[in-house]
Amino acid sequence: IGSRVAKRLNGWECELVYHDVVDHDAEYVAATGAKRVELDELLSTSDIVTLHVPQDRVTTHMISDRELAMMKPTAILINTCRGPVVDENALIRGLEAKEIFGAGLDVTEIEPIEADNPLPTMANVVLTPHLATRALESELNGAQFTMENAGRMVRGEAPDWIVKPV
């Protein structure tokens, strides 16, 4: 998802940087127009940080007090991957202290969001539902691809679409 976001931003005259624990093919990276940097450099120099990682024991709370303090006071943090990737209490503290300018979230650490969570009422937070796959086209395509894959497997053929485990 991160590389697709980068490809879409490539023509918008912005400098794109990324950090990843995975080494990608040079041609693949070149197509995004992004430059690989260390996470600390990305956090300290970026105007917008958008997160696209799976949630696992390494990425849980990968953005917390230390990382937020490194960011520019004008920076915006966008989390559309998994809520627990961001330490929500640290984010609330950082937003209140104006360590960062704002946050855009379509996921929260606890879902459904608790009634006493201050994020929905904060002026510097945009909170939306995590419904990317709820588009009618996604549901129709998902059903079609599933049936086509099942047919291939029944015929002894290799499936075209495989979701790799995290």
Can you offer a commentary on this structure?
- This protein is an alpha/beta fold and 166 residues long.
- 34% of the residues lie in helices and 13% in strands.
- Strands 3-4-5-6 form a four-stranded parallel β-sheet, with no helix packed on it. Strands 1-2 form a two-stranded parallel ribbon.
- Helix 5 (88-96) links the parallel strand 4 (76-79) and strand 5 (102-105).
- The chain is globular, with a radius of gyration of 18 Å.
Topology:
Elements: H1 2-9, E1 16-18, H2 26-32, E2 34-36, H3 39-45, E3 48-51, H4 65-70, E4 76-79, H5 88-96, E5 102-105, E6 125-127, H6 136-154
Parallel strand pairs: 1-2, 3-4, 4-5, 5-6
- Outline, from the CA principal axes? globular
Number of helical segments?
Answer: 6
Structural class: alpha/beta
Which stretches are poorly predicted, pLDDT < 50 over at least 5 residues? none
Radius of gyration: 18 Å
Largest sheet: 4 strands, parallel
Q: How helical, in percent, are the residues? A: 25-40%
Spatial strand sequence of the major β-sheet? 3-4-5-6
What percent of residues are in strands?
5-15%
Compute the average pLDDT: 88
